[in-house]
Design goal:
7 strands, 64% helix, disordered C terminus
């Protein structure tokens, strides 16, 4: 059982070494081709009983040409086209002066394969046709054998097969490289998509935490101030204010538990099952502000409209954050007006206040309230406008699109 992995690891190490030292492989290949050429030059293909070895001896010039062609073949990867030109020329010279010629054309076949495997298809067509034509024509014209002899047809066949085989290797290598690049691109895209979704989820949870904490802490602050102010003179009202503080803190804890519970793993116990807040709880939200002493009026024309969960949550959070800003920045006597209007395929949420003090601190982008509103609206493909009103106060308006499914449900 251990022999096969060992053999495989050795083969992988050998392949890795050959990839790192291509010149050594080419030198070994050239040596092998030289041995084959020299051995074949001692054989007579037309013996009485088939090819006969030792029936002839290669001429000195043939040995020189074979040696030169083998040496040139070592550089086939660095200069494939020049190597093909030199080996082709040496092969043509041997066809002209040799009778019968030594198999120098073997080096031209290997060089043509290299050209086809390492260049493009148009170059392979041009160089391959030229090499086949020149070598075949030279063999047919200068050989003592008939032009239709097997040796001459063999030159044509081997050069053609070399070009076709090299082109097939190049095409397969290009296909493998393309598949590898596509897989790497898909992996990068998958990782980028995962990072983008994580970032979006972090922003969404941060917005929810900001909205929940800012709203309830503002209510707690107001009610605690009321309790401290009337503690000595009106203990009943102070007790009522402390009850509102307890209720607001309990509500804050529940919403924080639900929001943070989204970070649990699917198998964790006590995962939150409460639905996300929406416009169905708008009256209860406004009542918490009224209990804190802020007059709020509501006008709605969206009754019977079923909003998508994301739109419903965004509308609720926008109203919550806008009223929290009114409570923090518009002054104690400021009133607020909230309207939710269905207009075609959109729902418009507007919050107005009559404050006379400074506008919200994040109106110029310095805080996170309006930034969070804009992020929510932009993520849904809507628009948000926020700014001071003529004559005093502040205005926040969000236009949220309703998708086709929600339109049909309405």
């Amino acid at each position: 059982m251990t022999a096969l992995p060992t053999r495989t690891s050795r083969l992988q190490r050998t392949r890795g070494w050959l990839r790192e030292h291509p010149l050594a492989f080419d030198a070994a290949l050239a040596s092998g081709v030289l041995v084959c050429m020299v051995g074949m030059s001692f054989a007579d293909p037309h013996g009485p009983h088939g090819p006969t070895f030792g029936a002839r001896t290669p001429q000195p010039h043939a040995l020189v040409l074979m040696l030169l062609a083998a040496v040139v073949l070592v550089f086939r990867r660095r200069r494939p086209v020049p190597v093909l030109a030199v080996t082709g020329a040496l092969s043509a010279v041997e066809c002209i002066v040799g009778d019968p010629p030594a198999p120098v054309v073997m080096t031209a076949v290997v060089a043509l394969f290299t050209v086809a495997a390492r260049t493009d298809r148009p170059t392979t067509w041009r160089v391959g046709l030229l090499s086949m034509t020149v070598l075949t024509a030279t063999a047919m014209l200068f050989s003592s054998a008939p032009w239709y002899s097997q040796e001459n047809i063999g030159v044509f066949a081997w050069t053609g097969m070399a070009a076709a085989a090299g082109d097939a290797v190049r095409s397969r290598r290009a296909f493998v490289d393309a598949m590898r690049e596509r897989a790497e691109r898909a992996e990068r895209t998958r990782e980028e998509e995962a990072r983008r979704r994580v970032a979006e989820e972090r922003l969404r949870i941060a917005r929810d935490l900001h909205d929940v904490v800012a709203h309830h802490i503002a209510l707690v602050n107001v009610q605690a101030g009321v309790a401290a102010h009337v503690m000595d003179k009106r203990p009943d009202q102070a007790k009522e204010a402390l009850g509102h503080v307890r209720e607001a803190s309990r509500s804050a804890l529940n919403e924080l538990r639900a929001t943070v519970g989204l970070l649990r793993q699917s198998g964790d116990p006590e995962a939150p099952t409460e639905p996300a807040p929406g416009l169905a709880g708008l009256d209860r939200l406004l009542e918490t502000f009224r209990q804190a002493g802020q007059p709020v009026e509501l006008a709605r024309t969206d009754h019977g409209t079923t909003l998508p969960a994301a739109v419903d949550l965004a509308a609720y959070r926008i109203i919550q954050e806008a009223l929290t800003n009114v409570q923090k920045h518009a002054g104690a006597a400021a009133g607020a007006e909230v309207s939710v209007v269905r207009v075609g395929r959109t729902v418009e949420v507007t919050v107005l206040d009559s404050g006379t003090e400074a506008t919200p601190g994040d109106a110029d982008g310095g805080g996170h309230g309006l930034i969070g509103m804009r992020e929510r609206v932009t993520a849904l493909g809507g628009t948000l406008s926020a700014g001071p009103r003529y004559g005093g106060g502040f205005r926040v308006q969000a236009i949220l699109p309703i998708n086709t499914h929600a339109e049909g449900d309405a």
